[in-house]
């Protein structure tokens, strides 16, 4: 790729060598990618989690990021998702009455932005309401008390994510000197600076809020408050992340919050868009999901969603797995080794990026019978026949996705509520969703019609 050597693998036995080891001691593939000046310039090579090559700093940040997989956090997330989705479904009922189609990608981006923003910072950006108000409908909704720069911030995050491939692949000399490329480079770097300044502003505001709240009063529950209070007298023991001697620095907080946005937004909302694409074409699957909800909750009318019940939703889980198998949002995962390695008869030089081609693996008939057929049952009845390491949508080992549980909880919450509230249809009969190939694939032009369920 350009001037950078990359090795692409798509065999489970090789996947095991890279993604199998579960501890830092046993694995040589500790880095996300080979060293890149561009990634350093954009602030990711030595900070945060995803691309961080400073393993000591990565390990600390990762411990903090792990709060997004513990039950108290997931329970809060269900409550918040519930509120956001209820409001969105009220808007969809208006669209149904107006006979309007629903642009799933736009709506799920808005839902994702509202959930991630409130969970990460406690700040609402009302993306879904803004989207509703932008449609050709008379009954506009009022918006108040929101994060003024919220929408601009989300757009900046999308640009930041987009900049990673450019910064990684285009050699520094080109980025700095060639007209046009130089301008793009500047746009990406200015964008990163703006994100960091905006986060710094929000952190200062939140810090004042915390200082002005008496110790006897509980604080809001969001990731930012949690990060700012850990190892201070305000430490919320509600979500404990273990023992660290000092509070996180402002820089560390910025990097972690930034990554909650960069990693948490498109991954979940794009996966959900793909899932809904398949559901609108497989009514039998939709009805089976409805039956499962009825079996687990005893009702389809506003079932009480508690975390403990989610493990019982095996069919819904299989639907999610099958959708992200057939169309994985992250269709390629990179890792790089810290030293030279003997690998399937070759020597891979230290710091060479090895990519797992998830798409190729998930579509190989050796590992998935009739791979082009959408068949959630393969994750239920044929589950045990799936070759080990042939299916790792969230990665595996030391750098496996820390957002997996949160993403699954968000997707399940949305799907349960969707299935209980609406029937869905699509006029478009194509078998495969359209999308733009990216580090996180972006679905486009997925439209459905909804009809409120009777009874
Ligand atoms: C459907 C949704 C998602 C999918 C398919 C997904 C997939 C992945 C994959 C494949 C990796 C690479 C793992 C490896 O190298 O072994 C990863 C890493 C990561 N994911 Fe996710 N992810 C999703 C949602 C999320 C969410 C909601 C967050 C929340 C913040 C998140 C945060 C991260 C982070 C921080 C890493 C880097 C971990 C490290 O390098 O230590 N992801 N994800």
Describe this structure in words.
- The protein has 455 residues and is mainly alpha-helical.
- It has helices spanning 12-19, 37-41, 55-65, 71-97, 104-121, 127-134, 150-169, 172-177, 181-211, 223-229, 250-279, 283-297, 307-310, 314-326, 358-362, 404-421; strands at residues 6-9, 102-103, 332-336, 341-343, 346-348, 353-357, 422-425, 434-436, 442-444, 447-452.
- Helix 9 crosses helix 11 and helix 11 packs across helix 14.
- Strand 8 and strand 9 form a beta hairpin.
- The protein is built from 16 helices and ten strands.
- The longest helix is centred in the middle third of the chain and has 31 residues, at 181-211.
- It has a three-stranded mixed β-sheet.
- The site of protoporphyrin IX containing FE has 30 residues, from helix 3, helix 11, strand 3 and helix 16.
- It is found in: Membrane.
- Belongs to the cytochrome P450 family.
- Its EC number is 1.14.14.14.
- Its main location: membrane.
- This is aromatase.
State the end-to-end CA separation.
56 Å
- Across the major sheet, the strand order is 1-6-3
Ligand list: protoporphyrin IX containing FE
SS-derived structural category: mainly alpha
Count of alpha and pi helical runs = 16
Helix content: 40-55%
Summarize this entry quickly:
The chain is mainly α. 50% of the residues lie in helices and 8% in strands.
Write the layout of secondary structure elements.
Blueprint (H helix, E strand, L loop, with lengths): L5 E4 L2 H8 L17 H5 L13 H11 L5 H27 L4 E2 H18 L5 H8 L15 H20 L2 H6 L3 H31 L11 H7 L20 H30 L3 H15 L9 H4 L3 H13 L5 E5 L4 E3 L2 E3 L4 E5 H5 L41 H18 E4 L8 E3 L5 E3 L2 E6 L3
Parallel strand pairs: 1-6
Antiparallel strand pairs: 2-10, 3-6, 4-5, 7-10, 8-9
Helix pairs in contact: 4-5, 4-16, 5-11, 7-9, 7-11, 9-10, 9-11, 11-14, 11-16, 12-14
The protein binds protoporphyrin IX containing FE.
Protein name: aromatase
EC number: 1.14.14.14
Subcellular location: Membrane
């Amino acid at each position: 790729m350009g001037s950078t050597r990359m090795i692409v693998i798509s065999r489970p036995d090789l996947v095991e060598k890279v993604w199998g080891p579960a501890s830092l001691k046993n694995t040589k593939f500790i880095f996300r990618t080979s060293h890149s000046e561009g990634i350093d310039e954009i602030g990711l090579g030595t900070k945060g989690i995803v691309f961080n090559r400073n393993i000591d700093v990565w390990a600390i940040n990762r411990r903090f990021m792990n709060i997004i997989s513990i039950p108290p956090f997931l329970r809060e997330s269900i409550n918040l998702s519930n509120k956001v989705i209820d409001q969105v479904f009220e808007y969809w009922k208006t669209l149904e009455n107006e006979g309007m189609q629903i642009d799933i990608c736009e709506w799920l981006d808005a839902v994702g932005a509202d959930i991630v923003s409130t969970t990460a910072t406690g700040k609402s950006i009302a993306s879904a309401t803004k989207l509703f108000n932008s449609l050709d409908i008379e009954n506009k909704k009022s918006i108040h008390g929101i994060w003024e720069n919220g929408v601009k911030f989300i757009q900046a995050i999308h640009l930041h994510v987009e900049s990673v491939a450019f910064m990684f692949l285009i050699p520094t000399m080109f980025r700095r000197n060639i007209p046009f490329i130089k301008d793009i480079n500047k746009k990406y770097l200015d964008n990163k600076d703006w994100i960091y300044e905006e986060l710094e502003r929000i952190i200062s505001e939140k810090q004042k809020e915390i200082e002005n709240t008496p110790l006897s009063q509980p604080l809001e529950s969001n990731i930012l408050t949690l990060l700012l209070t850990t190892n201070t007298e305000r430490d919320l023991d509600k979500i404990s992340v273990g023992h660290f001697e000092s509070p996180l620095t402002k820089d560390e907080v910025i990097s972690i919050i930034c990554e909650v946005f960069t990693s948490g937004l498109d991954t979940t909302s794009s996966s959900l868009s793909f899932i809904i694409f398949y559901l609108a074409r497989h009514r039998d699957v939709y009805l089976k999901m409805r039956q499962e909800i009825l079996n687990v909750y005893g009702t389809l009318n506003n079932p009480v969603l508690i975390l403990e019940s989610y493990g019982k939703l095996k069919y819904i889980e299989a639907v999610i797995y099958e959708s992200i198998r057939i169309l994985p949002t992250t269709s390629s995962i990179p890792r790089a080794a810290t030293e030279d390695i003997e690998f399937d008869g070759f020597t891979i030089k230290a710091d060479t990026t090895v990519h797992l081609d998830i798409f190729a693996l998930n579509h190989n008939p050796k590992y998935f019978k009739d791979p082009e057929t959408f068949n959630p049952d393969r994750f239920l009845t044929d589950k045990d026949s799936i070759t080990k390491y042939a299916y790792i949508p969230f990665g595996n080992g030391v750098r496996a996705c820390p957002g997996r549980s949160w993403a699954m909880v968000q997707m399940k919450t949305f799907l349960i509520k969707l299935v209980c509230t609406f029937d869905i249809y699509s006029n478009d009969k194509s078998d495969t969703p359209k999308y733009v190939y990216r580090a996180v694939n972006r679905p486009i032009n997925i439209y459905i019609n909804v009809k409120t369920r009777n009874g």
